[in-house]
Amino acid sequence: MFTSKIKDFIKSRSPKTPYLIVDLSEVKKKYDILTAQLPFADCYYSIKANPAPQVIKLLNSLGSSFDTASINEIKNCLELGVKPEKIIFGNTIKKENHIKDAFRLGVKYYTFDTDKELDKITRSAPGCNVFCRITTSNQGAQWSLSRKFGCDERQAVSLLKQAQTNGLIPYGVSFHVGSQQTNSAAWRYALSKTSEIIKKLLSKNINVSCINIGGGFPAQYSEKILPLKDHTETIKKSLIDLFGVNGLPKIIIEPGRYIVAEAGVIVSEVLLVRNDLHKKGIRWIYLDAGKFNGLHEAGITRYPIKTDYPDNNPAGDVILAGPTCDGDDVLYDKNLKLPLSIKIGDKVCVLSAGAYTNTYSSINFNGFKPLKEYYI
Ligand SMILES: *Cc1c(COP(=O)(O)O)cnc(C)c1O
Fold this sequence. Notes:
Layout: H1 4-13, E1 19-22, H2 24-37, E2 41-46, H3 53-61, E3 65-68, H4 71-79, E4 87-89, H5 96-104, E5 109-112, H6 115-124, E6 129-133, E7 141-143, H7 153-165, E8 169-174, E9 179-181, H8 185-203, E10 210-212, H9 228-243, E11 250-253, H10 257-260, E12 264-274, E13 283-287, E14 305-307, E15 315-321, E16 330-332, E17 337-339, E18 347-350, E19 372-375
Helix pairs in contact: 2-3, 7-8, 8-9
């Protein structure tokens, strides 16, 4: 979102490009919308989407909990005042030492999807609560999160049973329908798989009380998407169909992208325009922001791009590229039109860039620094 706060900042402060600017009031707005649409769910913000202290502090003050993937993410949260009981150590692939450290720091929720990982948790976080992560269809998502993680239903039943035998609390089943999921059916499908597992365990007197439905809630980029409500209504309806109004388990959501993406804009500058590379008439525009300083997802994620030229300015096809000496540092090589009058020094703003950008910056590739960040 190109909020007036962001526009004013760009105009009046005009810092050196490239940089990421995030309007925190938009982050709050998204948190409020999502939690209002799923009032029965506990929200664990998945901090890998944007771990800036300003974002974590804001969400902590609003009552959010946090999904983390590493001991350093856990320590970052704790240093910012997050209570350890509000943290899930959600990565299914952990160093055992880090489990031990997290346990010592008071973290009580851990995720696993194999017997070997369960063994590590049993040894290093005795008595804690565990989630077993299942694979599910990621169809309809821009980024799959099922190929690398999860187990099948049969394994989930036997692993959660094993967890109880090991003295752990078989707390929940978790899944992730894939990031930027645009198909509501993905949640319905995963929930019905989950309910089978929970029922099977109940028949063995094992009471799994929670479903962690992960993230995947989509942000608005260039392509039109269904309103969030379509997804949240499907989730609600599926839960009621599967468990009944009075039998609902505890529900956890772990949104990342949805909460922060639209609140951020990457502001960059045109370094060079050329028309004569390879084919005549194909215009290349090179920016000071590229795949190595924030726009790693470009190409797949269709970020809306804005310039200072009015919308009715004649526009033409461009190939948009980053500044490094890497041939892959091309953001878009088709389906993008920009004003014909664009020139060196003009600002180019990449919208909906608040998620999966700042921490995807490389440290010093080609001597380029990570993105500067401003939170207003
Ligand atoms: C990345 C991740 C999320 C957040 O996913 P989004 O698509 O950004 O909402 C949630 N849960 C887990 C376990 C993750 O790895």
